[in-house]
Amino acid sequence: MLTKEQIAQRIAQELQDGYYVNLGIGIPTLVANYVPAGINVTLQSENGLLGMGPFPTESEIDADLINAGKQTVTTLSGSVFFDSATSFAMIRSGRVDLTVLGAMEVNDKGDIANWKIPGKMVKGMGGAMDLVASAQNIIVAMQHTNRSGASKLLSKLTLPVTGLGCVKKIVTNLCVIDVTPRGFELKELAPGISIDDVHNATEGNLLAEGEIPEIQF
Amino acid sequence: MLTKEQIAQRIAQELQDGYYVNLGIGIPTLVANYVPAGINVTLQSENGLLGMGPFPTESEIDADLINAGKQTVTTLSGSVFFDSATSFAMIRSGRVDLTVLGAMEVNDKGDIANWKIPGKMVKGMGGAMDLVASAQNIIVAMQHTNRSGASKLLSKLTLPVTGLGCVKKIVTNLCVIDVTPRGFELKELAPGISIDDVHNATEGNLLAEGEIPEIQF
Amino acid sequence: MNKVVKNADDAIQGIRDGMTIMLGGFGLCGIPENSISSIVKAGIKDLTCISNNAGVDDFGIGLMLQSKLVRKMISSYVGENAEFERQLLSGELEVELLPQGTLAERCRAAGAGIPAFYTPAGFGTEIAEGKETREFGEKQFIMEKAFESDFAIVKAWKGDTDGNLIYKATARNFNPMMAMAGKITIAEVEELVEPGELDPNFIHTPSIFVNRIFQGTDYEKRIEQRTIRQN
Amino acid sequence: MNKVVKNADDAIQGIRDGMTIMLGGFGLCGIPENSISSIVKAGIKDLTCISNNAGVDDFGIGLMLQSKLVRKMISSYVGENAEFERQLLSGELEVELLPQGTLAERCRAAGAGIPAFYTPAGFGTEIAEGKETREFGEKQFIMEKAFESDFAIVKAWKGDTDGNLIYKATARNFNPMMAMAGKITIAEVEELVEPGELDPNFIHTPSIFVNRIFQGTDYEKRIEQRTIRQN
Fold it and tell me: Which chain D residues are within 8 Å of A93, Cβ to Cβ?
């Protein structure tokens, strides 16, 4: 089983030099901590910052400089500020190379639900619907099952959809899965996890063909 | 009969303090020379300048600073540069208070033709179609008749239209006319010009009711 | 024509019960603090507020919610606010949630004289319900319309008395589009300067979009998530 | 990932016969002089050029016309060019004229992932022929679509090696929208600096839109209408 940090670390292996990347809140944020050596990526924060730096020191804190999670952050050399319309222009026009998001559910067509639970207070979708409708390359970072043990990888979403056919890859505590026209394709297994474990935890259509290697770090 | 300068001078009387104004090429450009005392107007040039100043002196010339007529110009205190999309955002959203344009023909519904003569080389409409489709307040500055003596104030346009029902006022060498739902309403006469003179030079429906005063400068 | 008004109380003149107003800001960053205080003081109610967020319980638009001045919020994210939740569940408050990019673009469209546009955000979701959809190049889009609002209230870093504005860092966010979009646009600034003091090449909101401007006071600039690293 | 290329010859690699390219500039102001020279030198032909103007006979896009490299111009104003007129009348050159604001907005739409929008410009004119029209709020509009282009070539004043750009004065014009719109965007700059040298708060084109950048040489910056006043 992977820890949250390991899920982030595995996703970081997908980064390529020069990528512009949007990281959602939660596990996705941790991806920034594992950028491989020699790879340069630029983080986009949809509230209007390209080139997001680390959290500030106490003396660097600036209330006018936050990220999309409303956290205080810093800039780097080459950073740039812009307005929200320009920010989503970047996103909708496909200039963001990789988007990493959390999810409540994903189905085997790549549809994602991550913004609303009927009956619970709805906070809103923020930029998630723009991101999933626009990005060419979306990776979902999440636990394979929810707190009550039910699979989050489904044949059919039970929660309101955020976007259709957009998820390309899923990294969970159990495995790495590619979402292809054939469904969930099992690509790599977490240490100590068997194909059967994944089958048992996956409600949607799972394909496990050939040798499935263990995730390497 | 008014000179071109006097046409511009009469139009300048329509300026109000705080107006943002777009002046077309030709007679409209001259309006800037007659801004009444105590009135402050800001000139918008659709290539990306608000607060257009006078032509530069020899030493002030900057190839990167031109107006929509491609003439070298200067800035003033409070001037601002912007891109073409922002420029036409201002225009289309009705933030420009007054637009002064030349015309080849205007009809008594306020339709205007000023961009194309079939059979002749067509240079293009530039920003004229955006301006006439958007401005709340459009004044046409032109000669009352063309070079062959034919009226330019018509019941029906003979040339391709630039915009529909947009002209509110026309100032020619002969008179001042308001375009209302009733047609061309004669409001003021140039010195030495009679109502009959205007009738003879106007092909479209002309209303001349009551006393028509002489244009005052 | 003088756009400069003395303070927020003067700036908000004409905002009346039942109107639709836009308020700049992302979270508590770049919000028009002074104008919000004056609206609360004036007790202008039944407002429809277009703003990306709804503040926190005791700051930002949260203050307007406390005073029950808001009838409807049009936002993309409205968490971190218990009073908001209470009013929503009790039916006192109506909420329309929109994708953040759609919210920004509907402001920009209003300020650009574009009555409607197409966006992929929300296609296939409940956001698309009741909206026209259309295919362009084998991809599906929703038609979204420009917002209509009576007033836009924005917060800038510096402004000149002509109305030119510059924003600071990520406090820019929705402010420039809302400044374009208001029938009447009110700008509060931390520092009001004379025309010519701002570089004409680096102005974020050209003066033509701003109707009233004033220098605000006592900016609190509260931080929602104070995240720091050890040096 | 290094976006910096040595010169215009390297920057235009991949532009092929028959492609659609956008070229920034208004008149001769803010045009990508170096890249135009390299395209002429390379003899890339049958091009569709989206540019507000078509240069003059011996400068700007006029140089491409002289070499008969342009099959179609999409512009708002194409005066001041005798060779242009000759090719147009002889049928060698095709021209599509668009309102200037529509031209700008179709670039911006392409860069904003907006496939189509509505504008009032040109309603009731021959520009509307073959286009959908529609009423919003008792006013008539035309539906216009985002441009599709293979390359966008822009000219900036300063740029950093990450691709952030700033423009000078009215040389900005169409350049920012075209920079957003190209499948591949090439930027030539008068001065190329290191990341961090441009103030992040005052950048006109964020780096993400720029794929290749180089410092140009020998800018002529020809003036079309040299108007002066006596001091």
Answer: 110-113, 180
